[in-house]
Amino acid sequence: MIVSVTNKDVDLALAPSPWDLGNMVLYDLCKKYPKHESDEAIIAKIWLIGRSYAAAIERRKIVQASSDDFYKKTVAKSIKESKIDHWLANLPEHIVNPWEQLDTVIMAHKKLMDLFKRITGLEKRALASKYLHFHRPDVFFIYDSRARQAISKIAPSINQIPEIKCKESDKEYLFFVRKCLWLKDDIFKRFGIALTPRQIDKILLSVTD
């Protein structure tokens, strides 16, 4: 059964939320420390974002060290030695046509997801999307199981949605982004309002609630 987003849903997405202040703290943290050059900044960002969004990186396949040692000796080192700053720098500054410009966004998500898998032994699809979202909230849609379930109730089947061509991707996140873009376009066509990825997430959470 397809759920239709209403004007009330859009108003809810635009309205203040009790979570706004907490999210602003995370946005400000990533804005103040956008790079991945110091252990302290890396640990603060991955720890606070992961814990706040039920996607902690210390949840891993094989536990061989305490969480403190894992963050200091494995997480910070691996992220610092990665090319994450290059992936972020390679993203478009301004989005004019997301269907043609989000390929680098989807590829950055795949690269970070692969990095997290090397670190934890697990797919960290949700954590990768959330971590990147707080660095570039204008281009990264927030993925998790609730959002995936909600968008499946709203968007048409994937073969009815335009493609996004990219060299490499996590297929599940790629399909999720395409459906979110479809929803964003549908809302703009019907209500004349361009929602942000955060506001799209608020709509998806309201559907699951």
Keywords:
209 residues, globular, 11 helices, mainly alpha
Can you describe what's shown?
This protein has one domain (7-208). Helices cover 63% and strands 0% of the residues. The protein has eleven helices and no strands. It has helices spanning 7-14, 20-32, 39-52, 67-81, 84-89, 98-101, 103-120, 125-135, 145-154, 171-191, 197-208.
How would the blueprint of this fold be written?
Layout: H1 7-14, H2 20-32, H3 39-52, H4 67-81, H5 84-89, H6 98-101, H7 103-120, H8 125-135, H9 145-154, H10 171-191, H11 197-208
Helix pairs in contact: 1-11, 3-4, 3-8, 7-8, 9-10, 9-11
- Provide the domain count: 1
What radius of gyration results from the CA coordinates? 17 Å
The proportion of residues forming helix, as a percent range, comes to: 55-70%
Percentage of β-strand residues: under 5%
Class computed from helices, strands and strand pairing = mainly alpha
Spans of 5+ residues with little confidence (pLDDT < 50)? none
Outline, from the CA principal axes?
globular
N/C terminus separation: 16 Å
Number of helices: 11
Order of helices and strands: HHHHHHHHHHH
Mean pLDDT: 94
Number of strands: 0
> Can you summarize the main beta sheet?
none
Entry summary:
The chain has 11 helices and no strands. By secondary structure, the protein is an all-alpha fold.
